[in-house]
Design goal:
This protein folds into 3 domains: 3-246, Aminohydrolase, N-terminal nucleophile (Ntn) domain (Glutamine Phosphoribosylpyrophosphate, subunit 1, domain 1, 4-Layer Sandwich), CATH 3.60.20; 254-451, Rossmann fold, CATH 3.40.50; 457-596, Glucose-6-phosphate isomerase like protein, domain 1 (Rossmann fold, 3-Layer(aba) Sandwich), CATH 3.40.50. The radius of gyration is 26 Å and the shape is globular. The strands form 5 sheets. It has an 8-stranded antiparallel beta sheet with strand order 3-2-4-1-10-9-11-14, covered by helices on one side. By secondary structure, the protein is an alpha/beta fold. The structure holds 5-amino-5-deoxy-1-O-phosphono-D-mannitol.
């Protein structure tokens, strides 16, 4: 959840670290800090509550010299977000400074033991326990920093990515990971550290993704060394990152979220490139080719995911069940991992995650693996922990998603799930060639239809001005569009802080209808599919209670338009592909309402982009 950056080389470290923190700020933004070994040989820590810009202001009159440093942007878990709890944390002697992403679960026990040895603490964080423990080990065992880190990590229970500086050894950074991502960038006479590759790619495309249990020892003028907790040297593979700077910048848009909404047509083309061949009418997913027998033998699929990815999973269930006839269950990864699920080696678990780092999803995968299931991953972040933990999978290839509210990842996930369903159905020979080619053609046409939907942006901005007053919203949809209603509601609450609920439309009369009055906006996805007449009735029920309807309709519709207060048109498509279009106006509605309310859409309060803690 937090962002880690490190630098050791020949440049000034501070500007590299600040720029890196800005690129990682989506991971957490309640406080920020930097530790530098200055030209005078001091180990200086500057940290403050607030964003990276606040840190820059705070450090503007300080000594920010030096070519070695580590920096952190925080999403608080233990201890309120204030300057004292911000990272880096000094050890008691101020000789060490440490940054940490994750949770030290046994920190209370460790803290008590250290206090019994007279160690004094300054903060209420779990992180400070770790730096104090390392210093205690260094002194009590009379060992070097690497040994002290190894011994300390052997005593720690929890998840971490850490980086540590030692005043007495200014040419060195030690970093380690367990269950939290950490990447080392390798340049000419310089090294970088990042929670992901985004702070690194400006300088080098050569990276090493650390594995759980790796300790990286970065030393000036020496080769990178990676050892395990027992000091056994480990092999490491240098990878080339295929990420362009333009992909992680706003490109003229006021916010990443709006840029990412507008990128969706191109993203879906990237997602389908090389996988859909319309001329020969086929869908090719290498994972299905490589693991055909295992996938076709599946007794059932279980989809595990969180948040928006879970909503995509609900659509995936309908796609796979309706096209392939394979039973699918969809579980919140956080519930699945503690539910003692019945899983056998005939099950295939599909793990969906944009970041590929979500702790609950990773734990669900590990549990399912132990029980013998085959794991198929659908991730965006290449080389992420989930991508590496799965047996096979398909990347969604939509490029880095930086806005905390997930947009293009959702449509990318639904697109991969659609291709997966089609490819499986073809292999199982349960789809007619007519239906197959119709679906392939229509899926291929979705990016152009998305462009049409995006033209409604100004209209949606005008609608959003009317509804900014609302304290509650209801979102209704049925069938394939029910998960779209859930997703629309999630988008709105995340970034505008308006309470919103998504419901299957027919359930309205079993309770939520009581909420409807003339102040209640209800967003209804009422496209012309098999359930159209039913949705018309729902809209009539809402209007009879003077509710205010914003309808998502198929172009050319007249009946719903006549009833609704506001409407947004979508091009016609197959019912099972409607979510790919219907979700876009809901993303835009949430965006514009949040803007009207003056909210920070890219970095909404209390949230972080990747949830690497339970
Ligand atoms: O990276 P993941 O897809 O695993 O993340 C899952 C959720 O944390 C994520 O979708 C979250 O709900 C988003 N903020 C939604 O916009």
């Amino acid at each position: 959840m937090c962002g880690i950056v490190g630098y050791l080389g020949t440049r000034r470290a501070y500007p590299v670290l600040i720029k890196g923190l800005k690129r990682l700020e989506y991971r957490g933004y309640d406080s920020a800090g930097v530790a530098l070994i200055t030209d005078r040989g001091d180990l200086q820590v500057y940290k403050t509550k607030g964003k990276v810009a606040d840190l820059e202001a705070y450090a503007s009159d300080k000594d920010v010299t030096g070519c070695v440093g580590i920096a952190h942007t925080r999403w608080a878990t233990h201890g309120e977000p204030n300057s004292t709890n911000a990272h880096p944390h000094y050890s008691e002697s101020n000789n060490l400074a440490l940054i940490h992403n994750g949770i030290i679960e046994n920190y209370i026990t460790l803290k008590k033991q250290l206090e019994e040895h007279g160690v004094k603490f300054r903060s209420t964080t779990d992180t400070e326990v770790l730096v104090q423990l390392i210093e205690y080990m260094q002194k009590s065992q009379n060992v070097d920093l690497l040994t002290a880190v190894r011994l300390s990590l052997q005593r720690v229970i929890g998840a971490y990515a850490i980086a540590i500086l030692d005043k007495s050894n200014p040419g060195q950074i030690i970093a380690a990971r367990k269950s939290s991502p950490l990447v080392v960038g390798i340049g000419e006479d310089e090294f970088f550290l990042g929670s992901d590759a985004s702070p690194i790619i400006e300088y080098t495309d050569k990276v090493i993704y650390l594995n759980d249990g790796d300790i990286a020892v970065i030393r000036r003028n020496e080769e990178l060394e990676i050892v395990d907790f027992n000091n056994i040297p480990l092999e490491h593979e240098i990878k080339t990152v295929d990420l362009k700077l333009g992909q992680i910048e706003k490109g003229g848009f006021p916010h990443f979220m709006l840029k990412e909404i507008f990128e969706q047509p191109e993203c879906l083309k990237d997602c389908m490139r090389g996988r859909i061949n319309v001329d020969q009418t086929h869908v090719k997913l290498s994972a299905i080719i490589d693991y055909k027998d295992r996938l076709l033998a599946a007794r059932r699929f279980i989809i595990v995911a969180c948040g928006t990815s879970w909503h995509a999973g609900l659509i995936g269930k309908q796609l796979i069940e309706s096209i392939c006839g394979i039973p699918v269950e969809v579980e919140y990864a956080s519930e699945f991992r503690y539910s003692n699920p019945v899983i056998t080696n005939e099950d295939v678990v599909i793990a969906i995650s944009q970041s590929g780092e979500t702790a609950d999803t990773l734990a669900a995968i590990q549990l399912a693996k132990q029980k013998g299931a085959f794991i198929y991953g659908i991730c965006n972040a290449v080389g992420s922990s989930i991508a590496r933990a799965t047996d096979t999978g398909s990347y969604i290839h939509v490029g880095p998603e930086i806005g905390v509210a997930s947009t293009k990842a959702f449509t990318g996930q639904v697109t991969v799930l659609t291709m997966l369903a089609l490819a499986l159905a073809k292999e199982k020979k349960v789809i007619s060639s007519n239906q197959y080619s119709m679906m392939v053609n229509e899926l291929n046409a979705i990016p152009d239809k998305m462009e049409e939907v995006l033209k409604a942006n100004d209209h949606i901005r005008d609608i959003s001005r009317i509804f900014t007053y609302a304290h509650n919203f209801l979102y209704l949809g049925r069938g394939f569009n029910y998960p779209v209603a859930l997703e629309g509601a999630l988008k709105l609450k995340e970034i505008s802080y308006i309470h919103a609920e998504g419901y299957p439309a027919a359930e309205m009369k079993h309770g939520p209808i009581a909420l409807i009055d003339d102040e209640m906006p209800v967003v209804v996805i009422a496209t012309q599919n098999v359930l159209y007449d039913k949705l018309m009735s729902n809209i009539q029920e809402i209007k009879a209670r003077r509710g205010r309807v914003i309808a998502i309709v198929t172009e050319g519709d007249t009946s719903v338009k006549a009833l609704a207060d506001e409407y947004i048109e979508l091009p016609r498509t197959l019912e099972c592909l409607e979510p790919l279009l219907a979700t876009i106006p809901l993303q835009m509605l949430a965006y514009h309402i949040a803007i009207c309310k003056g909210k920070d859409v890219d970095q909404p309060r209390n949230l972080a982009k990747s949830v690497t803690v339970e």
